[in-house]
Each structure stands twice: as C-alpha cells, then as structure tokens.
Design a protein that fits this description.
about 30% strand; about 625 residues; six-stranded antiparallel sheet; Jelly Rolls; 32 strands
Amino acid sequence: MKNTFINSLLAVMLTFLFVTPSLADDFNEPYIPAIALYPQQNAVRNRLDLSGIWNFQLDPKDEGEKNGWFNGLPEPQSIAVPGSWNDQLDQQHNYLGCSWYETETFVPSTWKDSEIGLRIGSAVYFAKVWINGQPLGQHEGGHLPFAFAITNKVKWGEKNRITIMVENKLSPDRVPGNVAGGALASQNYPNANYDFFPYSGLHRAVWLYSVPKSAHLIDITLTTNFQDTEGIIHAKVRKHGKATSGTVVVKGKDGKQVSAPIRFNGDETEVDIHIPQVKLWSPESPYLYDVTVELGNAAKPIDSYTLQTGIRTIEVKGDDILLNGKPIIIRGFGKHEDFPIYGRGVAQPVMVKDFSLMKWLGANAFRTSHYPYDESVYAEADKQGILIIDEMPSVGLVFYDDQKDIDRRRKVCDKMLQEMITRDKNHPSVIMWCVANEPSPKTLGSNVLTGTNDAAAEENRIAKEFLGGLVRQAKQLDPTRLATFVGVMGGPADWMECCDLITINRYYGWYTNIGNFPMAERYFSGELDKLHNDLHKPIVVTEFGADAIAGHHANEDEMFSEEYQQKMINAYLDIANTKPYVKGMMIWAFADFRTSQALMRVRGMNLKGVFTQDRRPKMAAWLLKKRWVDDKNGDY
C-alpha cells in the first residue's frame, strides 16, 4: 500500500538524530525527525524530566555568549521550567530580550550503552543550546520541540551542565513577529503583530532520553481506514541499526490483539494490520488502540515503542464534513495556552480543567490558536473525543513589505509545518491542519470599514502563492487530513480557493456595526451566503464573540457587559442554524487571556472568553450549556 504521507515526509527528512555526525562548533539546525517519537520509558528506553527550578539570568546587552556564560552564569537567579519568564520575575513582564537558562544533572550510568538525546519542548522564540560548554545547535520558532544528540558529549559519573539561551525579539522576518504598518504592531506594547501576549522562555518540559545503540526506531507513522467492519492501520516504520525484522502489535481495550511481522529492506518498511470488528474513533466513542512496534525478537526486543491511535477517516464532500463517512457539526472554541503566573507554560491541572469544562458545555472541538499546544493536550483530546484544528504559529502574516522578509517568513513557515505534522500526525483527534491565522492585506483597515475585501494585484499574487503553497505542502505531507487557513474579516475571499473548506473569523457587532445588532446580523448572514456562493465549500466560523468584563451587567446593549456578549453569541448561532452549509461554530474565546497593552484591551486582556482567565463562567457559558447540552436539538 503506497503511503503518500510517508514518502513526502521522508523526502524532507534526509538526516536522523542518532545517525548524524557530531555537530561542529557552529550552531546547526536540529533535525526534524528527532521529534517524531516523544520520549518514552519502557524496558529498553529511558527518559529523565529536567523540569524544576533552573538558574536564570537576563542578558539585555547580549553579552552572555561573548563572555562565555555557557560555562556558568555569573549572577543567576531561580526560575521555574516550564513557564514563561514574564510573570515569574518582578518588573520583567514586557522583557523579550536575551535570557539564559542553566541546570545540572547526572546522566544515569545505566545509559552508558545507549544513544542519548536532549529534547526541548518549546523555546520561544529563538534558542541556542550547549552541554558542558560545547555547542549543540540552535532552533528558531516557538511552540514546537527540537532535539539534539549528546551521546559523545556526556560526562559520566559527574554532573552535566545544560545551558539554553532564549530570546523573543520581535522582527519583521520572524513568524510571528512585528511588521511595520501591521494592523496591531504599531498600536500596542510590546509591539507584537498578533493579539496575544508574547510570552517568552522555556514553556514545556526538557527531557534527557535514551534509545538502544545497536538498533532503534526513528519514526512510526500510522494512517487508518476501514471497510465494512474491518479496520486497517497502515504502519510505516523507520529504524537505524542492524535489526532486520520486527513486529507490529495492535491491541484493543478488550485485550484482543492482532499482529503482523515486519522485515526491513534498508531502514524502512511498511505493513497493513487488519482489525476485525473494528471500533471506530469519534467524539461519541473515542476508542483507542495500542500500537506497539518492536525490533528484533518479540521475546526480548532490541527496541520497542507504543503509541495510541484511533481508527477514523475525515473528508469534505459537497457541503459536508464527514467523519467516518457521516456528517459532523463542529461546536467549540478557539483557545490559548495562558494562565496567571504560568504564562504560556504547561499547566497540567489547567489542561484537565479545560477538558472538563468543554465537556460540561457540550463542545466537541477546539482550535490550537495560534500555535501547536503541548503534546499532552493532544493525547488527552484523543482520550476525550475532542476534535482539534491543529494550527501552526503563522499568525499575522502580510505580503506587502520587503520581499526578503516575505521569503524568509515562508522558509520559517515551511519548517514549522514539517515540524507540526511530524509531531502530531498520529493523533486521531487532529482532523485538520491550519497553516495560518488571519493573513492580512495592506488595505485591511479600510476593507473592514467599507465592507470590501480587495488587495493590490502584486500583493494578491504573492499571498496566493504563499498560502496556497503551504496548503499544498500540508496536503502533500498528509493527504489523510483536511488543510486550510483562517481568513480575516476584510481579507480577500479568493485567497481561500486553495483550502479544503472555508474557515473564517468574523466580528460584526464588535469591531464594526458596534451595538447595531440588526445591521451586524445582516452583514454576517449576507457574507456567509456570498462566500458559499463564490467558493462552494462548507464553512466553519472559527472565531466570533465580544469582550465581557466578568460581573459587569447592563439592561441595554452595552459593550463589555456580559449581556452584550451573550446576545452576540446567541445571534451568531441562530444565524448559523439557518445556513445548511455552515458546519462549525467556534466561539472566541474559551477563556480570557493576556495581550499586549492597547486601548482596545482592558487591563491588557482579551476578555472574549466565556470563562475568566481563572476559569469562572460568565453568562455566555451558561447560554452555551443550555444550547449544546440541555436542549439537545442538534442545532448550534
């Protein structure tokens, strides 16, 4: 069975983590395949979580590398990893410059005969890494992991110093960054060209891990299908080392299992595993199978890795989004990884609470706005049956500034897309890749006010090539999922011709037609019809809503009151129920979140959440519970 996903992905993965020569003394880029398999503890693999209190030092003069801080920080203070530095340290909330992290650890002596790696879950935005004063490499782009081989650099029987320099400077050639003339960058502080706070630092766990030296698995990619009552898991396996055979075992929750032998001709192979009386994955029944790949003798494998997956299909047919061949309706939210003090750092109790609240409201989906989330979020969505639109960090793209900056942003986006798909490709919860959020024409401001959506001819050409190229790349890397980008209010409709479906953000009644609900409803309804008539694709409204200050009430249509937010959400949902081609409504946002300071941002917060930042429900949350749970009429 030919697997286009794997063939395309491997075409860009020419070198692998544990088969590359030692890095030179310059800072090379990490190898994308190194992040394909999340560190796992089992009988033959090991991992060590380095989360905790690290040494930390700000470097506002960018002098640390010149002065050898990778050999020890001169005046460190304490900081928690994972976590953003902005809200942990006094008077450093708006600092985005160079900063240094340092920790020391023993590598267990039992790992001596293994290959050893260092994996960093997320460093926003640019990082350089050293071990024991020796450079490992560098990585650009937050919210996605990267890893380096350290086998030949480990000191045995003594502590090893790991040093990571991180900076989050905003510049026009970064994704996201700060573009002169951008819709937001000139109006807020810090001057980010995106509407969420530019939290900085090590936001996810840092792992040491080991794999067997003689042979080990590098990558496993699972694609699924079914025919009548038989499920099919197609496994593509890549390894390194001397092993020539192995086994793939698929086990259900009932303990029943099927297996298939694998033999390697070179370093990769693929096999179909057929599962009788298959149980499909869906939001109503999120059934997961354990898939274990072993190298060598099954009784005593050389290497072994287990992951969970669900068997399901996703496609667009006419005006429908089909999950397992049946139409689905998406009800959910845009979200942010954002919580007091943690900033954008991983907070597992918050994640558990969020899933509980989504279930309480009857939501079945969310969008990882505006970047990929921590791996644990996807694993939990798999278990809970929550659908995910997986979005890369390309928010606030423009196509009218310096061509060199545009070209460099495209290269960064290409790499981010490869990283995201490499990391998240096996999660059944992920049904859609989103390659950008709200790419904007230079005329955006006037377009929104006048109700037009045009762009200059050359800008239009560049934008369509850029965005269409990303959508095509996503489909080439993974033809089993949908691909799209989220269109901005006032953005050209023809930019979205390349997408599998139309995903849009709309704020009639908030940013335009303020307080005039009848006019806002007419504009929203009319544009939905026009988009569908022009593009003939199903529509998912990925953002709509209004800011509401918790506890602020009014008996008239007063902005920032909970009543105004509730009325606006209710009106949009009612309109969607009259449009059979609208297949998803996602409120912006799940919870209030921090932004840069701006006149339109009360307390430096976006208050469009139906929950407060600390997860207390507003009136809108109770409205959604009534519509999505209590009434149970199948509508929005």
